[in-house]
């Protein structure tokens, strides 16, 4: 790995790196020249070993996803997994994706648990997806997904007097190769409501329209626009300009998730 490639992500101006232990050895985040790392995992089986988390926390500002409805992370019940995280690890409090919660966990209320978790971890970030009003009511750092309305919404928050911090999570693809971009984040963008509604109906008896590099016609046109609304896409200079725009309107932390893998940003 050369010095130039090691610093590609850092040169975009992003503030943190998001890594998923279901996809990679999260200790590889130490090879990327960023000051902060968030661990974004799906399901308890992917919680990294405590020794790995300690290593990351010693070298970087570290935050770990904490699904407050999940047993082991529930601040109003069993929070043993939360207590087992290293002292240097901060939290990203989320309601928790239903796919990774059992039936009982899915039925648990969110608002009281987010409030209790913020009281326990006052410096936590709170994920806003599907719980925007509840998240805002906590007063904690708002952790949002990048979207086509992010700039407008953050301006509105600041104009309304919100002086807390705002963090934005953005899948990031450091290339202008359109096929590579669509392979990396086409399906992700296609899951967003406005994009799903804009995509054409599948043809030739297919169950769904292609959302990767094989997309053609109107589907490809829609996706090519959408990936730039919901992800940071392009060469280093292009992504750096978008990150600067986010900072200019009041975003405090831009968190990049390397959608093609760490080897393409480090």
Summarize the structure in words.
The chain is globular, with a radius of gyration of 19 Å. Mean pLDDT is 93; it is low at 1-5. It has 266 residues and is of the alpha/beta class. It contains eleven helices and nine strands. Helices cover 37% and strands 17% of the residues. Strands 1-2-3-4-5-6-7-9 form an eight-stranded parallel barrel, surrounded by five helices. It has helices spanning 3-6, 50-59, 80-84, 103-107, 111-120, 132-138, 150-159, 178-190, 193-198, 217-230, 236-249, and strands at residues 16-19, 36-39, 61-67, 89-94, 125-127, 141-145, 166-173, 232-233, 253-258. The N and C termini lie close together (8 Å).
Provide the succession of SSEs.
Answer: HEEHEHEHHEHEHEHHHEHE
Distance between the termini: 8 Å
- Total beta strands: 9
For the largest beta-sheet, the strand count, sense and barrel status come to:
8 strands, parallel, barrel
Low-confidence stretches: 1-5
Shape: globular
Strand content: 15-25%
Q: Compute the gyration radius: what is it?
A: 19 Å
Helix content: 25-40%
With helices defined by DSSP (H or I, 4 residues minimum), what is the helix count?
11
The helix/strand class is alpha/beta
Which strands sit side by side, in order, in the main sheet? Answer: 1-2-3-4-5-6-7-9
Mean pLDDT: 93
């Amino acid at each position: 790995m050369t010095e130039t490639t090691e610093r590609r992500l850092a040169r975009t101006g992003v503030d943190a790196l998001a890594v998923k232990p279901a996809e990679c050895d999260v200790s590889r985040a130490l090879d990327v020249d960023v000051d902060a790392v968030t661990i974004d995992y799906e399901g308890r089986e992917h919680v990294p070993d405590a020794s790995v988390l300690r290593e990351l926390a010693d070298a970087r500002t570290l935050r770990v996803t904490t699904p407050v409805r999940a047993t082991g992370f529930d601040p109003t019940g069993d929070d043993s997994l939360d207590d087992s995280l290293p002292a240097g690890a901060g939290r990203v409090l989320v309601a928790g994706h239903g796919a990774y919660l059992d039936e009982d966990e899915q039925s648990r209320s969110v608002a009281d648990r987010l409030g209790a978790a913020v009281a326990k971890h006052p410096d936590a970030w709170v994920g806003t997806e599907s719980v925007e009003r509840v998240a805002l009511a906590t007063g904690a750092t708002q952790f949002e997904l990048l979207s086509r309305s992010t700039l407008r919404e953050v301006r509105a928050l600041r104009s309304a007097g919100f002086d807390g911090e705002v963090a934005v999570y953005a899948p990031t693809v450091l290339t202008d190769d359109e096929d590579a971009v669509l392979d990396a984040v086409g399906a992700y963008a296609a899951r967003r409501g406005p994009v799903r509604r804009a995509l054409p109906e599948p043809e030739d008896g297919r169950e769904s329209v292609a959302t990767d590099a094989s997309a053609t016609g109107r589907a490809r046109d829609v996706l090519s626009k959408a990936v730039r609304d919901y992800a940071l896409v392009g060469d280093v200079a292009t992504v750096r300009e978008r990150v600067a725009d986010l900072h200019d309107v009041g975003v405090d932390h831009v968190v990049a998730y390397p959608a093609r893998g760490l080897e393409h940003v480090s």
